From TrEMBL:
Domain of life: Eukaryota
Organism: Mastacembelus armatus (zig-zag eel)
Record-linked PANTHER family: OLFACTORY MARKER PROTEIN
Alphabetized Gene3D superfamilies for the sequence: Olfactory marker (2.60.120.390)
Protein name: Olfactory marker protein a
SUPFAM superfamilies in the record: Olfactory marker protein (SSF63697)
GO biological process: sensory perception of smell; signal transduction
Length: 169
């Protein structure tokens, strides 16, 4: 947790840094090709390998600044559905090493709007997990320039209807 003294930096809260989750379409496509290649050849995945599911995509955050203090999440989802965000500890190289299950971070961020809810109702989320997840992203920014995430779209949620970012100070 951030103490009050940590908040009194040279940057005022109005100068918050917004990091937007962007789909990495090239990496998503490479991971989809891995799945189809295994299916075509009849081979099995490596022991511990995590294959991309049809309702998942790879997103990334680029850290222009390494010193961040997590402030809050910003997300909007038009319509209904559930979105889960899983951080990945792997730092991909251009030759695309396979994603392994052990590289998936905890906690997982989840937010949703149920089908019976009015479309303009606020999204629901697991607040403690999302807070811890945001703080973990800020910690990893200290040693990275980029971080990757698996976003899963379920129960009618679609990538085109999503906007997701984190505010940092």
């Amino acid at each position: 947790t951030t103490s009050e003294s940590d908040m009194d930096t040279t940057e005022a809260p109005s100068n918050s840094i917004v990091l937007v989750f962007k789909e990495d379409t090239a990496l998503t496509e490479m991971m989809r090709l891995r799945v189809s290649s295994l299916q075509r050849s009849g081979q099995k995945r490596q022991d511990g390998e995590r294959l991309l599911l049809p309702h998942e995509a790879v997103y990334r955050l680029d850290f222009g600044i390494q010193e961040l203090n997590f402030s809050r999440w910003n997300f909007s989802l038009s319509g209904y559905g559930r979105v889960t965000i899983t951080g990945i500890s792997q730092h991909w190289t251009p030759d695309l090493t396979n994603l392994m299950t052990r590289q998936l971070l905890e906690p997982i961020g989840t937010f949703w709007r149920n089908t019976g809810d009015p479309e303009d109702s606020p999204l629901k989320w697991l607040e403690a997990d999302m807070q811890e997840f945001g703080e973990r992203i800020a910690e990893l920014a200290k040693v990275r320039k980029v971080m990757y995430f698996l976003l899963a779209f379920k129960d009618g949620a679609e990538a085109a209807n999503l906007s997701c970012s984190v505010d940092n100070q």
